[in-house]
């Protein structure tokens, strides 16, 4: 019975995976409309007929799907969600990334690799380090820029 069956709820942008049951079901001339039971009662109304036929429906940022459909689609859904989060992460930090690249004298565009970041840091450290005539502030800035770019690199790798 549909109202007792558990359905997978997936919100890839938030990384939420949960199980839910169907709550309120209403019949009209276009078919059956349903909402999920609490705590997901805000998901709906959607076509229950479509959900049962296709095994999956989209509602806002959520997907509601059968367990079987989740098993079939989860790898692609997780990869898509990861890519979306990565894109948002880059967009949110673009100014910081620009500043870090500028501090290390790296190009503003394109992907960086580990050796480029470390080489730029080593070159600047030769003169920025306090023992080499630089200042604590100069050295701290290039260390922070290097560390931030390396952290970004490991998060996307």
TrEMBL record:
InterPro entries: DnaJ_domain (IPR001623), J_dom_sf (IPR036869). SMART domains: DnaJ (SM00271). Residues 99-154 form the J domain. CDD domains: DnaJ. SUPFAM superfamilies: Chaperone J-domain (SSF46565). This is J domain-containing protein. It comes from Methylocystis rosea.
């Amino acid at each position: 019975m549909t109202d007792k069956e558990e359905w997978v709820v997936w919100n890839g942008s938030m990384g939420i995976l949960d199980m839910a049951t169907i709550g309120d079901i209403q019949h009209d001339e276009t078919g059956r409309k349903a909402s999920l039971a609490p705590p997901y009662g805000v998901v709906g109304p959607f076509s229950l007929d479509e959900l049962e036929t296709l095994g999956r429906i989209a509602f806002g940022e959520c997907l509601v799907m059968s367990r079987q459909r989740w098993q079939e689609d989860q790898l692609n859904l997780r990869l898509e969600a990861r890519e979306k989060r990565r894109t948002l992460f880059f967009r949110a930090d673009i100014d910081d990334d620009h500043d870090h690249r500028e501090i290390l004298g790296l190009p503003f565009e394109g992907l960086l690799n580990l050796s480029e970041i470390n080489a730029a840091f080593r070159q600047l450290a030769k003169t920025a380090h306090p023992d080499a005539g630089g200042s604590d502030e100069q050295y701290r800035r290039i260390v922070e820029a290097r560390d931030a770019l390396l952290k970004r690199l490991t998060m996307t790798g």
